[in-house]
Every structure is written in structure tokens, then in C-alpha cells.
Write a structure and sequence with these properties.
12-stranded mixed beta sheet, binds L-homoserine, 18 strands, 14 helices, 36% helix, 29% strand, 6-stranded parallel beta sheet, binds NADP nicotinamide-adenine-dinucleotide phosphate, alpha/beta, single chain
Amino acid sequence: MKKIKIAILGLGNVGRGVWNILHTNGNEIMKRSGYEIEVAKILVRDINKDRGIVVPKELMTDDIEEILNDEDIKIVVELIGGSLEAKDYMLRSMKAKKHVVTANKFVLANWGEELFSTAENEEVMFYYEASVGGGIPIIREINESLTANKIQQITGIVNGTTNYILSKMTLEGMDFETALKEAQEKGYAEEDPTADVEGYDVVYKLAIMSSLAFGTKVHPDNIYREGIKNVTSIDIEYAKKFGYVIKLLAIGKEENNKLELRVHPTLVPATHPIANVNDSFNAIFIKGNAVGDLMLYGRGAGDLPTGSAVVGDIISILRNNENMVNFKPSKNYLGLKQIKNPEENESEFYIRLNVRDKVGVLGHIASIFGKNNVSVVSVTQDVKHEDFVSLVFTTHKSLEKNISNSIEEIKECENLNKVESILRIENFN
Ligand code: NAP
Ligand code: HSE
């Protein structure tokens, strides 16, 4: 049996998952890859930390040079996360003629081009399946299985932490902070969970998926973003009453050669399969002009699901080792496409206001929507608290700029107490 030495950078949640899979499924992996895989070095910050698993002490290092200078190490698996060091270590590994596997969506979304071109120039393989959707094989699906299609839409729940939080808030009435703490304890969250909660992690994943699916360059800065911090239990209850569930969605659409890219909490119909994607599960819907509608579903975060994607990449490298089959993203590149300014995006909206309960207030607000070309679908007036009531509007598809102009005018109304929330609705039609 041929032998191969690899190095793992990072022994946190995913690193431990990879270590465990390599040991638990060692025989199967050996048969499938044709190689006996030896983990020769593991890079961490603190070599003395108790990690709850048994790893020979001599494998641990806090010095990247030990890995880069070891010519026998042929594959480097980057699982440290973050930006500058991760990017630097990946580029230097490639330049040292080592193949690279990563789960790092942040680096990939921001500096993918540099990594892909370095891999190509250095003639090494670069795989990144775990960067989107944890254990879901979405990258291979887009890069290989769906290449016959023009992809028209990708809509997904691609963050395990926020889906865990929203599911717990919706199904168990748990508060935000407790749910976040649980997601962190389960190893779903990023080291700094702001990336999850504020939607940045989803933006990186949408940038990666849409660059590949729509065959163009998408930078995270081109994507509209809102996180889940402002989603309240009141909105969750209203959504339920209207037949919806609130999910943090990544939405990418191509219409008339223009891309619409956005990430925000969204009301989705309770009857749609995506509404029932709970806990740390992720789901990605793809609409292709040949395949039609397709959905992938699985664990989007966690040690073993993510480790599954990482080890799958290592096996792909070993299987392709002899003939250097390396998927080149440039082969998917169809040219630069225009990305819509967020103001031009169109959605149905849910708008909750707190207003003085007085004759004419509802009529006045409705007239402001009308004046700004926003067509109202429904209005619900609820529980009176002192002199104030909630008015919840839902709208037909409206331009973002017409909604923001309406809100600016509504804010001028003397009977408005507060604009409580503005959420988008996706009815998948
Ligand atoms: P983590 O639990 O925070 O682990 C990070 C590991 O990297 C730790 O072992 C840490 O060492 C080490 N490390 C960090 N910075 C380092 C540096 N500068 N030099 C050397 N070692 C360093 O992170 P994780 O959850 O495993 O995530 C790893 C990567 O996978 C991230 O890019 C993340 O976005 C991605 N990812 C995670 C998941 C998930 O479910 N967690 C899913 C998909 C993708 P010490 O232990 O000594 O501090
Ligand atoms: N923090 C990420 C999540 C990890 O919660 O989905 C998976 O990429």
C-alpha cells in the first residue's frame, strides 16, 4: 500500500472531526484512496491544551515552518480559520508544492482568485468542499453534476449557528442568547460568532456558490447583508400567524443577465420544505434550466459532518494524484456579469409599525405606500398597549428603493411611535 503524509493546521472542532474520521474509517479510506494516510504534523496555537482526544505529543507543533519545510508532507489541510495566517499558510504550502484542502469560506470568498491561480501555477490541487454547507456536497454538485445547466437561482440556509438559533426561538421559545450559547457549545459557531449572527458567514458562502454557479466574479462586498440580531419573538409569532417561518436565507438569482444577491432573515411559507430545515441542518435549493428544482439537505456545521467533506477532499486528491486532475474554476467562468444595486432588488415585504391608535393613521400610512408604488397585500392591527397598536403590513413584490422611500416618509408621521421591523418574504414563485 502506498503511503502519504499530510499535515493538519488546526485541531479545533473540524480538526478533531477530521482526526476522528481518519482513525474510525481508516480501512475504508485506505481502500478507497489507495493510500495509507499518515498525519505527520498538526499545527495549533497551544500545544499543551487538553483537546479531549488522544494525539501523540510529537505530532503537535506551533511552528508552521516545520510543516512547510518537510518535503515528505504532500497535503496540507487548513482548519485554523481566520484570514491572514490561513491565507498565507495556504499560499506558502502551494508554493512548497503541497496540495491544499480548506474549510475556510472567509479566505476563499475574499482571496479565492489568488489561491486558485497559485494552485494552477504551482500545479497542485486545491479543494474546498467544506467551505459551504458543512457535510453537504454542494461544491461538487455545482462544479460537476450541474454544468449542463444555466443556473437561474440558488436559495439556501447555509449557516448552522443561525438556523439553530432561529429554530430554537421558533419551536421552543428559547431566547437568542441561550440558543447562541448552545450553538457555540455544539461547535457550530465561528470563533467570533459575530460572523454567524450578522450574516457575514452566509455572505462568504453565497459569494463562493454564486461565483461558481453563475460563472462570474462575486465579491462579498457585492452582496446585500442583514443578520438575525433584530428578529424578535413577536415577529416569529406574526410570521406563524400568517403561515410563515423566519429563516436566514442566502438568495442568488440571475434575471436578464443581472444578478441579484442578498442575505437576510426571510419569511418563508410554512409549507415549503425549507421551512422545516431546523437545528444545524442546512438546505440549498437550486433551479437550473435543464434540471429544474433541486434541493440538497444535510448537517451544515459540526465536527464530523464538516470533517466528512474535508476527508472526502483528501481522498479526491489521492485518487487524482497520478493524473493531476484539478478542477479549475476558470473553466466555469462565463464572463463578468452585472450585479444589481441592492436598491433595484425586488421582494415582498413584512413591515411592523407601532403607531398611535387614532382615526386616519392607518389610511395615512397606506396612502404613503400607494404614493411610493408599494402595493399592500394585507394589514393586521393588533393588541392595544396604552394608546399604541401594532400595524403589520405585507406587500406585493416591491422595489427596495420604494420601500425605503415609504419608510422615510412614514418616519415623519407624528402618530408613528416606532418602525419595529422590516423583513422580506420569499414565496418561491
Ligand atoms: P476552532 O474550533 O476555533 O479551531 C481552530 C483551531 O485552529 C484551533 O485548534 C487553534 O489552535 C488553531 N489555530 C487558530 N489560529 C491559529 C494560528 N494562527 N496558528 C496555529 N493554529 C491556529 O475552529 P473550527 O470550528 O474547527 O473551524 C475551522 C475552520 O473550519 C474555519 O475556517 C471555519 O470557518 C471552518 N468551518 C467550521 C465548521 C464548524 O462546524 N465548526 C464548519 C464548516 C467550516 P488552539 O486550539 O491551540 O487554539
Ligand atoms: N459557523 C458556521 C455555521 C460553520 O454555523 O454554519 C459552518 O460553515
